[in-house]
From TrEMBL:
SUPFAM superfamilies with a match to the protein in the record: Zn-dependent exopeptidases
Origin species: Cyprinus carpio (Common carp)
Protein name (Swiss-Prot/TrEMBL): Endoplasmic reticulum metallopeptidase 1
A GO cellular component annotation in the UniProt record: endoplasmic reticulum membrane
GO molecular function: metal ion binding; metalloexopeptidase activity
Family stated for the protein in its record: Belongs to the peptidase M28 family.
PANTHER family referenced in this protein's UniProt entry, alphabetically: ENDOPLASMIC RETICULUM METALLOPEPTIDASE 1 (PTHR12147:SF22), METALLOPEPTIDASE M28 FAMILY MEMBER (PTHR12147)
Span of domain Peptidase M28: 94-287
Reported cofactor(s): Zn(2+)
Annotated compartments: Endoplasmic reticulum membrane
Length: 720
């Protein structure tokens, strides 16, 4: 390649970088973009339309045409999320952009982002950066000299944070939705870093294959997909709406790093590195271009068969293949006679060591919680590894040392070592068989933990028998385990990268130390599985146990003394505590319309387990004397929940305060009341609010309507 061409490409890349940043900085400069606010419904919409019009004007002489439609749908839907609820929306905003050849197209890909944000955040990562990427991808594709085979619909939706409303309005009401055959959804669960493919399908493995072939910087995991879809992560994306209501397959991508500042004021443009934006742009552009030029998009239903195993190798390349069948279990070795009995006894020792280890570490986590030191690891993750990790490793080592000295006194170390190696192999085979029988693609992980160690054993058995655990044997053995262990350690890193921040916003009911201690113990068990047989070859484990015990005791004392404060205001790496405060005036009506009671106050929720423990020393008025209980006879305890998460956040505080006085108060009027044949009450009402109300007023109005709807009410007219 000539120097001139290289310089030209570099200049072009710098230009794209500046465009990404320009869009991101402009969108976030409008401030928080809550649904219904002028910043979201007017300012951001006008900016996006202006940029789209510039792209359309620039590409008029090319082989593509661009159509724009601003949709403001009204509707409702029920969703089995956060315990299940029904969501009503009125005139939310969608900007749909259709890019197609001038000869028109019959089949379309959908690319989706959302430009709204939560109330206290600029939403740079969630999800302004994705909309910035989509603008530049639209610009690049619109200016291609070769026409696309199929079309693309770019959807900039303005109501995702209100639980996926705008995407529902598009896929169920917009006429273009009938031509959509597949979709790519751009989301965030963190701020910056790599964007990971964490959901695909349902089925339709051709989408995964397209991503694997086309993505410039692939980062994907079927393990993440199955963990997310299991429901253990209290979050969801527009992927669910397109899958369940649109019945179309897709790919879900999200930024996952630094989830500590997700949905906070720290989610700002300067925290997202230009390389992260460029990486996302390269991937999305390449994948969309590949998909719209493919034959599969024209009849995606014909390729809907089975699931696919997919994973990346340290973010450098991606591997995908059809899911393994029950035949994978045939990899597990078989033996007979007395050795099987000895193997069963050894397996019982291994399982017992894991059970006792988990129990011990959970007791430590409960003691830390009872001491009022919960979440000490939130800013200092190494402290959790030192405390819970040393306890887990020490307990496993202790039990196997006792088994060697007290139970296997007359058996040679070499025989015991081989036996416990086979135990590890057997137990991984059981995991492989279980996951395969359940049809889970994550079965590829235990398959790796069977194939590579088994191959190592077959190659090294003679060497081990002849020379024992020599240095050469250890090096060759570790080399054989390198591939599965490096991959598993990478997966473990991803798990902690995702779950550690989530535990800071998982509510007041789940002790986070119990969850984190369980994860650390599970990681320890997995990583130690093929090393426990070395215990039976060692002369003594006394020094190792003493070292681990010293680390554990020291960390336990330091934690209980309060040395590790959970939160941090360090600008370079903030770890904020999440508190939800609403200044509200409540008017509680009986079903006949009479006012039963009213009050005003600051309703305070802690989104993590520590409650007000770290707030009371700074604000003495907020203490347990104002802690309020749930009134079960009232919908959602009689409080203005914006999201139906009272099962996660049952502890709340209510500090009396003056009545709320918005500039334009809510006008609320009951229109009709009707008893239904199902024993419920159907009520119609009218709610009006001036458009220039403050954002928090709009939020409170929305909340009031949401709670009233729990009485099976129908909104007759909600006029903004």
């Amino acid at each position: 390649m000539k120097v001139k061409d290289i310089l030209s490409k570099l200049r072009k890349k710098e230009l794209i970088h500046s465009c990404f940043k320009k869009h991101l900085e402009r969108i976030t400069s409008f401030g928080p973009r809550t649904v219904g606010s002028p910043e979201n419904e007017i300012t951001t919409v006008n900016y996006l339309l202006d940029q789209i019009e510039q792209i359309r004007t620039e590409s008029q002489t090319g082989p593509h045409s661009i159509s724009v439609d601003v949709q403001r749908p009204t509707g409702s839907f029920s969703i089995d999320f956060l315990g299940g609820f029904t969501s009503y929306y009125d005139r939310v905003t969608n900007i749909a952009v259709k890019l197609e050849p001038k000869t028109t197209a019959q089949h379309f890909m959908l690319a989706n982002c959302h430009f709204d944000s939560v109330a206290n955040s600029l939403g740079a990562s969630d999800d302004a950066v994705s909309c910035s990427v989509m603008l530049e991808v639209l610009h690049s594709l619109a200016n291609l000299s070769t026409p696309l085979k199929h079309g693309i619909i770019f959807l900039f939706n303005g109501a995702e944070e209100n639980i996926l409303q705008a995407s529902h309005g598009f896929i169920t009401q917009h006429p273009w939705a009938q031509q959509v055959r597949a979709f790519v959804n751009l989301e965030a669960a963190g701020v910056g870093g790599k964007e990971v493919v964490f959901q695909t399908g349902p089925e339709n493995p051709w989408l995964v294959q397209a991503y694997v072939r086309a993505a410039v910087h692939p980062f994907a995991s079927v393990v993440g997909q199955e963990v997310f879809q299991s429901g253990v992560i209290p979050s969801d994306t527009d992927f669910r709406i397109y899958r369940d209501f649109g019945k179309i397959p897709g790919i879900d991508l999200a930024f996952i790093e630094n989830g500590f500042i997700y949905h906070t004021k720290y989610d700002t443009p300067e925290r997202i590195h230009t390389d992260s934006i460029q990486r996302a742009g390269d991937n999305i552009l390449s994948v969309l271009k590949h998909l719209v030029m493919s034959d599969e998009l024209a009849d995606s239903s014909a390729y809907r068969h089975g699931n696919m195993v997919f994973f990346d190798l340290l973010g450098s390349t991606c591997i995908a293949g059809l899911a393994c069948s029950e035949a994978c279990a045939g990899l597990c070795p078989a033996a007979g006679g007395r050795y099987m009995r000895d193997l069963a006894c050894a397996a019982c020792v291994a399982v017992l060591s894991w059970f006792v280890t988990l129990l011990t570490v959970l007791i430590v986590a409960l003691l830390v919680t009872l001491a009022g030191r919960s979440m000490f690891w939130y800013t200092h993750f190494y402290a959790a590894v030192c405390l819970y990790g040393s306890a887990a490793v020490g307990k496993i080592l202790l039990i196997h040392t006792l088994a060697r000295n007290l139970y296997y006194g007359g058996v040679s170390g070499v025989d015991l070592s081989e036996r416990f190696f086979d135990v590890s192999l057997l137990l991984w085979c059981c995991v492989l068989l279980f996951l395969t029988q359940r049809g889970l693609c994550s079965a590829y992980v235990p398959m790796m933990m069977v194939v590579f160690p088994l191959a190592s054993k077959l190659l090294l058995t003679k060497h081990f028998r002849a020379r024992g655990a020599s240095l050469q044997y250890c090096v060759l053995y570790l080399t054989g385990l390198a591939v599965p262990y490096v991959h598993i350690m990478f997966l473990i890193w991803v798990v902690f990268e995702i779950f550690t921040p989530i535990l800071g916003r998982s509510g007041t009911e789940i002790p986070p130390d119990v969850v984190l201690a369980s994860l650390v113990t599970l990681a320890t068990i997995i990583l130690s599985s093929y090393f426990m047989h070395f215990i039976y070859l060692s002369c003594s484990t006394r020094r190792i146990l003493a070292g681990l015990g010293s680390v554990f005791v020291l960390m336990f004392v330091l934690v209980c003394c309060g040395l590790f404060f959970p939160y941090s205001a360090d600008p370079s790496s903030p770890r904020p505590k999440r508190i939800f405060v609403q200044h509200s005036t409540r008017v509680l009506h009986a079903l006949d319309g009479t006012v039963e009671r009213s009050d005003s106050g600051l309703w305070i929720n802690s989104l993590d387990y520590s409650g007000m423990q770290h707030i009371t020393p700074h604000i003495p008025q907020i203490n347990d004397s104002i802690r309020t209980r749930c009134s079960e006879q009232l919908p959602y305890c009689g409080f203005p929940w914006f999201l139906p998460v009272k099962f996660l956040v049952k502890k709340s505080w209510y500090l009396p305060a003056p009545e709320v006085s918005p500039e334009a108060p809510l006008q609320f009027r009951l229109l009709s009341r009707q008893d239904t044949e199902w024993g419920t009450v159907k009520m119609s009402f009218e709610a009006k609010v001036c458009y220039i109300c403050k954002i928090y007023c709009i939020y409170n109005i929305y909340i009031v309507i949401f709670i009233i709807c729990k009485y099976t009410l129908i909104i007759k007219n909600y006029d903004c």
